[in-house]
Here is the input.
Amino acid sequence: MQTRWSHQLSILYLTLPFILFLFGWVRLTVAIPLALILLFALYKLLITNYQSPSTTNYQPSTVLWLLLTIFWLLLSGIGGYAFQNWDHNWRNVVLRDLMNFDWPVTYAQPESGPVKMLVYYVGFWLPSALIAKFTNWQIANFALFIWSLLGVLLVTHHLGNFFKTSNLKATLLLIFFSGLDILGTLFFAKDYPTILPPITHLETWAGNLQHSSFTTQLFWVFNQAIPAWLVISVIARRANFPTKQSPSHTEIASGEEQERPRNDELILLWSLCFFFAPLASVGLLPYVLIELVKQTDFKSPFKNVNPATLISAIIIFLLSSFFFTANTAAQQRGFQSIPFTDFLAFFLLEGGILWLVLAPSKFRDPRWIVTGALLILIPFIQLGSDRDFVMRASIAPIFYLMLMTGETIFNKSAAHVSLITRYTLLALLALGSLTPLYEINRSLYRTFDYYFPQEEDCGCDFVLPSNDPITRLAPPTAPELEHPGLLTADALPTLKFMTDELSQNFIANVRQTFFYKYLASH
Here is the structure.
């Protein structure tokens, strides 16, 4: 896959769901002109900006890379082919309602009173949901699996180019990169998780604080993780070229000068991240600002800015903001107090030690400074009633921590990196890999148990389904004990009748909102 085409495919991958959102959620008088602006911007961005393709990044390990990625996706539960963790109850019901209800998904629209609408970051499901409207649930899940696979392949391809190594090695780093949850579990966890059996959810050792590993993100919140990873990897890959006022003849001939990021493109990418995963985009924003400062010629800051691309970014951000703020579930904002000893343990074990080990070689890198600042600040910020902000806003700093770690490990010729630093990083990565291994092992264990059930009784009694609508979902216990005897987390047939607290993250009364009154199609 050529770098040029992988970049263009990534942009199309990220923008297609927003175009579907435009025509599904927004009245045509607004959607058509906005779509025309976006399509024109894409034409200018993808066609006229690039004249020379880059070299093909093919390695003999390409087949292994493909097989490993497919296997990882299968174990995530996406598509329902392997065990699904508890969060898939909500992922599945969103896809099902997108398939079964007209767009925008509205559960109650009386002449007066509350208008109940699905208000959530639905973008990642839209291509699969559109296919589902003309097929069935099984094909919809297969389409979701293929869509997710394409996204992860693009991410790992960009990472391979970024690290200047094989896509296989980049994928292995993505899969197994994690904090030292095993130590947190060993020394700080109270009742759960436990070291044994090796299928527990180690991420929860610090209670309501968590920086999820990338395997955990894929296995639990793929709809936010995959597009956020792709945006970050595109930005990082494109920003990896040296910035100079005058390109060399070699750069021009090879097409590298065309590969450098432009300010309007960076802003567009960030706005797309906001559309898919608004909390992740908060953590990404400081890194985008770094790149904007690096790339801007302040004598003529708008010299290389395409107005259509910039306007498209503003459209995506504003329209997404109007839609998301129609849901008031996350209006609780503020700071949460954390005992210093608890914070110190969390900071050090969830990336802080890795960050400190990188200091001798990266302390002048603004990415390193921002990463440390975010790892310190994010745990104290409260948004909504749950811990989602800590888990999702940390996606970007943890991803950049992985990027800096990978740069140090894979760049063996770097004279400023000592062998002690490199071996220390490898040891920390090996210890941290236990977190994704526990996630993978749980999926393997529960999947094997489903396809090859033991003869003895599973300890669960079969209960006939009730005709009564489901209004609440019991909170999760231990993931390894969820929905015994079942593969998929499919407890919710629809969100229409839900009334519990968690469902309010998905359903909102939108009658008095700006989006419903002036933008939404009815």
Notes: DSSP finds 22 helices and five strands in the chain.
